[in-house]
Amino acid sequence: MSPDRPLILVSNRGPATFEYDDEGRLHARRSTGGLVTALTGLVHHRDALWIASAMSDADVQASREHGGRAFECEVDEVRYRMRLVESDAEAYNQFYNVVANPLLWFIQHYLWDLSNAPDIRREEVAAYEDGYRAVNEDLARAVLDELETDDAVVMLHDYHLYCAPQVIRESRPDVFLHHFIHIPWTQPDAWRVLPSDIREDIYEGLLANDIVGFHTRAYRSNFLLCCRELFGLQVDEEAGIVHHDGRDVWVRHYPLPISAESFHRTAQRPSVHEYEREILRRRREHLILRVDRADLSKNVLRGFSAFDLFLEQHEEFRERVTFVAQLMPSRQDVPEYAEYIEKIEALVAVVNHRHGTTDWMPVDLKLEENLERAIAAYKHYDLLIVNAMFDGMNLVAKEGPLVNERHGVSLLSENTGAHEELGEFSLSVNPFDVQEQADAIYRALTMSSDERSWRAEGLKKIISSRDPGDWVDDQMRDIEAKRSGARLGPGGVAAQV
Ligand code: F6P
Question: Using CA atoms in the order 285, 286, 292, 295, what is the torsion angle rounded to 10 degrees?
Fold first, then answer.
């Protein structure tokens, strides 16, 4: 894409989160999560305006201080041009805590226990209409307000914004709309949970884009299948095209890399070294690590059950291994998430009680968000556990092996996006098979050093072979190709016509 073409990024969570300090003054810190990491990589490579929701009172104040317009903000040495969009507080609550999480998030990670939930009543439908749609319309209006030229590209991100593209398209048929989904796309039946008019509204919204992107080939196939099976649309599976409303929508996959360079830089911060010293002082012979958001999709409970089983079946490892679990609480206004933390704490207490001794606590649970401590632990694990039930990509699976210094082994769920790239050098597991995970723990901790180093080197090589610049370039190339009238050939390769 021509670097001069104006680029607008749109996501629910923006690059900076505003907070009040002790004196009640506003200050910004870099937001966390895979999406922000990905788009920060993008901003490094292209000048862009980033439009996002004002998610908290402090964000709202920051937005108001700039009259709701775009402003510049520097965090962690990155300069962002951003615009925070304020929505009605109750509408935002319905949008975030009822529809996006859990309704859509659970559909897209197969998390609903369908014999029990969800119950869709008038309240949920109203939350969709007055919350989800309303917030999408607010963000879409901000985009329309910022669109000055007709050669602009708008890149929308994730499951929060499925309705926004259609709202933008209605006013500006000329604008190029690109939408990247950071989470899995599930198979058609998972979507049948939604009332048919909401389901249709979501797909209509998404199909107003010119290109829809996913992390993996599998999610791309599922999306195409959904378009055909749920709505009878004409789909060219091989080329990855949905014909809809007289338009062609390209459906592509672009696996997200991490920036090895900036991650290595962060890993050299003095505070990381300080945490390392603490970890080394306390470590036993073997260190098992997991770092996650405390999200149901991450499968934290089965990870602890597998460790429990491993200790039961291999008594010789007692007092020789510690499982450090650093989990960041998130979405605590959603009851399922608050209960999940309680379940995690309860299970950790059981495992520690069952196996622990007076001077050994098998599971060291840290409920906190602390990037520096996580990186310090990445450097020294012997086994990294990423056993998500379903996960769009999972950047921990890339960050850990990149900086690990002990030829640590990766236990990796076959249902993560990262598995498409890293499966060969990981111990692949079925995330529901607790015995298989217990066996994988044993295998990792008893593996020969030759095999460990072969696996670790293989992972490092793949992870550092691409960076976010390549991810951006691949997408921009397709944007440019589609704008200039190219068609996708077999396998989704752009061919000029
Ligand atoms: O794509 C999923 C995602 O948006 C990631 O950015 C991140 O892992 C997570 O969800 C963050 O969720 P939230 O913005 O609700 O904290």
Answer: -110
Gap between the Cα atoms of 451 and 287, Å rounded: 18
**Ligand 1 centroid, distance to 412 Cα (angstroms):** 20
Atom 10, ligand 1: which residue's CA is nearest?
A: 33
CA–centroid distance, residue 348 to ligand 1 (Å) = 25
Residues 6+ apart with CB under 8 A from 141: 167
Q: Is 328 left (phi over 0), alpha (psi -120 to 50) or beta?
A: beta
Q: Whose CA is nearest to atom 8 of ligand 1?
A: 33
Please identify, by atom number, the ligand 1 atom nearest to the C-alpha of residue 96.
15
236 C-alpha to center of ligand 1: Å?
31
- Which is it for strands 211-214 and 234-236: parallel, antiparallel or unpaired? unpaired
Q: Name the DSSP letter for residue 315.
A: G
- pLDDT of the residue at 490: 57
Confidence at residue 497, expressed as pLDDT on a 0 to 100 scale? 41
Cβ–Cβ contacts within 10 Å for residue 192, how many? 12
| Closest atom, ligand 1, to C-alpha of 158 | 1
Residue 3's pLDDT is 64
Name the closest-CA residue to atom 6, ligand 1: 35
pLDDT in tens, 66-115: 999 999 999 988 999 999 999 999 999 999 999 999 999 999 999 999 99
pLDDT at position 41, please? 84
- Pick from 38, 70, 73, 66: nearest CA to 51: 70
- Collect the ranges in the chain with pLDDT lower than 50: 496-497
Q: How far apart are CA 426 and CA 432, in angstroms?
A: 17
Q: Are 46 and 105 in contact (CB under 8 A)?
A: no
Mutate to test the pocket of ligand 1, among 9, 10, 13 (most ligand atoms within 8 A of CB): 13
In order of 1, 143, 485, 495, 496, the CA distances from 476 in angstroms are 5, 19, 14, 15, 16
Q: Which atom of ligand 1 is nearest to the CA of 293?
A: 8
User: What is the number of alpha carbons within 13 Å of residue 301 lying toward its C-beta?
Assistant: 13
Ligand 1 center–CA 210 separation, angstroms? 24
Gap from CA of 182 to ligand 1 centroid (Å): 8
Given a contact cutoff of 8 angstroms between Cβ atoms, the answer to whether 109 and 389 are in contact is: yes
pTM beyond 0.85, yes or no: yes
For residue 386, the surrounding DSSP H or E stretch is strand 383-386
Distance 298 CA to ligand 1 centre (A): 12
Which ligand 1 atom is at minimum distance from the Cα of 36?
6
The structure tokens listed for 380 are 């020294």
Scanning 77-216, the segments in alpha helix (DSSP H) are 89-93, 105-107, 122-126, 133-146, 164-171, 188-191, 196-206
What's the token pair of residue 319?
Answer: 């007092």
Q: Which residue has the tokens 């003095």?
A: 270
